[in-house]
C-alpha cells in the first residue's frame, strides 16, 4: 500500500460451487498478498462447510455469507443449477444488496468497501454494486477459449450451426469461432449447444450463459484465470468486447505463497503415503471433479479400462458420483490390490507427486490448469459446459494429452490411459507446456505482470 493511500477493501463473490470457489479463493490469496482487505462472500450453506479457522487466517480476510434461497436439504447438484441460479437472483440478491449497503462505512475492523469482484455467472452482483456506487469487475472461472465460444453463439445461431440437432455429424467442422477455424468440431462446442437427446429441446442454459457472457462487457473489467501463452488468440478476440481484460492465471500458481484452503470436501491426505510406495510415473490419478455424476454402466466401463491398462490407480470418487456401490465393484475387480479409492484428494499435491504418470480428468478448467502446471499428461473425458472445448485444446492445440469425449468404452479407456502413461511425445509436450506456463507466473512473466496491473487498477478505482 502506498503511503497516505486509504486501505483498499474488495468483496469477492463466487458462484457457490466448488470449482468457482477454488479459483476465486486463489484470487483472494493473491490480493491479500498485495496488501488488500478482502471480504469473501459465501452462501450460508457453503460457509457452514468451510474450515473457518484455517480459511480466515489473515487479519485482512473475513468470511461472510448470504442465503442462497434453497432449503438446507436441497441437493444443490448439477441437475439443480437452474434452481440455484433462480433463488440467488431473488432471495440472494436482496440479502446481497443489504450487505453491500452495510459495508459502505468503516466498521472499526475493516475499511469501507472499495470494489466488488463478482463471478460472471452472478450478473446481479455487478449491477447492484454499481447501482450503490461501488465499482465492479467480473471474474469468469472458465477458459478464455470457452468464453469466446459463448461470445460466438449468436453468430453460430444465425448461420444455423447451433443448436446442434440430435443425430447430427458431430465431427463436422465449426468455422465461426475466431481463431479456431482449423480444428474446432461440433462436438467440441460447449455441451449446451446440443439439442437435448431425448426431448430435442434447446438447453435453457445456452441462452443464460450467452446473456451472462455479453453482460460481462458492462463490468469495469473482465478477469480470466488463464495465461497469455496458453490462450493468446482467444484473449485477443475477447478483448474488443470488454472494457479491459486481465489474464492472470494459473492463479493457484501465482498465489501459492499465501494459499488458502479451498475445498468444501474433506481431503483424504492418507493417499500421499500410498503414492510414496509406488515407482515414479507408475500411477494413474482419476478425478472427475466436484459436479460430475455418472451411470453405473459408465463407471463399470471406466473401471474395466483402468484395470485393463494394468497400472495402479488412485481414484477420487465422491460418494454422490455413482448411484450404486462403486467401492465394492472396485474391490471385486481386484487389479491386484493396485487401486486406492478416496472420497476427495488433495489434488495439487497428488499431481506434483513423482509417482503420478497421468491424470484422467473431466477437463474442468481448474483441473486442466493444475495438470498443465505440473506437466502431467491428461486423459480428458469431459462432462459438460466448457469441458468439451478444454479437452479439444489439450488433445489438438497444446498436445499435452488425449481427448476421449463422447466415448465411454473400456477398450478406449485402456488404450488412452496407456498412451498417456507411455508416450514420450505426450510427456515431452506436457513438460514443455509446464515450463512455458511457469515462466508466465514467475516474476516478470505475463500473468504476474497482469496481476500487478490488476492490483493497480483496483487501487485506482478505489481512489476515484
Rounded radius of gyration (Å) = 22 Å
The CATH class name of the largest domain reads Alpha Beta
What do the pLDDT scores average to? 92
User: Terminal Cα separation, in Å?
Assistant: 16 Å
CATH architecture of the largest domain: 3-Layer(aba) Sandwich
- Count of helices? 18
Strand content: 5-15%
Please indicate the count of domains. 2
Reported for the largest beta sheet, the result is: 7 strands, parallel
Question: What ranges have pLDDT less than 50 throughout 5 or more consecutive residues?
Answer: none
CATH homologous superfamily annotation of the largest domain: Glycogen Phosphorylase B
Counting helices, strands and paired strands, the structural category is: alpha/beta
Protein name: Glycosyltransferase
EC number: 2.4.1.-
Family: Belongs to the UDP-glycosyltransferase family.
InterPro entries: UDP_glucos_trans (IPR002213), UDP_glycos_trans_CS (IPR035595)
Q: What can you see in these coordinates?
A:
This protein has two domains: 9-144 and 206-263 and 442-463, Rossmann fold, CATH 3.40.50; 270-422, 3-Layer(aba) Sandwich (Rossmann fold). It is globular. Helix 6 crosses helix 7. The longest helix has 22 residues, at 81-102. 44% of the residues lie in helices and 13% in strands. With 464 residues, the chain is of the alpha/beta class. The strands form two sheets. The protein has a seven-stranded parallel β-sheet, with helices on both faces. Strands 10-9-8-11-12-13 form a six-stranded parallel β-sheet, sandwiched between helices.
